[in-house]
């Protein structure tokens, strides 16, 4: 016979077993592993084979697509030498607009972009195993651009045969700096010619109003007041001329850009009239108008009153 204490322990254990079974069924789940059936294996193999045989993707420029009549999804053959000994088939994944470059706006941008491994496979020489690891140029961006000279000196001392040079041109050697000076010279000549024209116009208007000025002088109006009125008139004429020029520039900006963009097949913006340019034009035109008005009227106001009113 089993003792009463042991009998109670066995009954309690038997009572807990269903609860443990339910807990195990609830907390432990079967995680399916990779498919082991022949159908799943064939599908995975077919997918990997399709990915391996699919041509790599490449992007071509809009000009190249238009020249060769290509579209997205077409297959093209690219080679790294004129003979075509090293060539590969690529699939066109997209067509892009090349970044406008003022230094190359006259060149036809027949370009293609691809992934670096594909480019290495295409350009590598099979006869030279080291060609896949060779690099002719490396771009380095310094935290402080002022350390460029020191960096180039240290690099040349540590690695003979390797040279470092600035990717950006110095200000004195930049062709756009020369072009900027040329534009300033043209602007100075244009402003001088415009000022001379305005001065001649103001002189003609002052001579036409000689009798009016004489009458005003006889009425007791001082030369200072007359000069002030002439200065205000000169400012008004110069401001109106500047505003007309700015509006004309804004109106023809798009037309000039479209003409030259169509001529050179580029997205480069050739003319852009900004608010700072417009404000600078007004600030330059106003003093020139004042100077031209005062200079033209002073030749009349400095005369004797009798010479002004005499016919």
How is this fold's topology laid out?
Elements: H1 4-27, H2 38-53, E1 57-61, H3 62-68, E2 75-79, E3 87-96, E4 112-114, H4 116-123, H5 148-158, H6 175-208, H7 210-218, H8 223-264, H9 275-301, H10 305-309
Parallel strand pairs: 1-3
Antiparallel strand pairs: 1-4, 2-3
Query: Count the helices. How many?
Result: 10
Strand line-up in the sheet with most strands: 2-3-1-4
Give the number of DSSP strands.
4
Radius of gyration: 42 Å
Determine the mean pLDDT: 75
What count of structural domains? 2
Q: Topology as H/E string?
A: HHEHEEEHHHHHHH
**For the report, how would you describe the main beta sheet?**
4 strands, mixed
Taken as a percent bin, the fraction of beta residues is 5-15%
Fraction of residues in helix: 55-70%
Pick out the low-confidence regions: 1-34
Specify the oligomeric state.
single chain
Give the helix/strand class.
Answer: alpha+beta
What would you call the shape?
Answer: elongated
* End-to-end separation: 157 Å
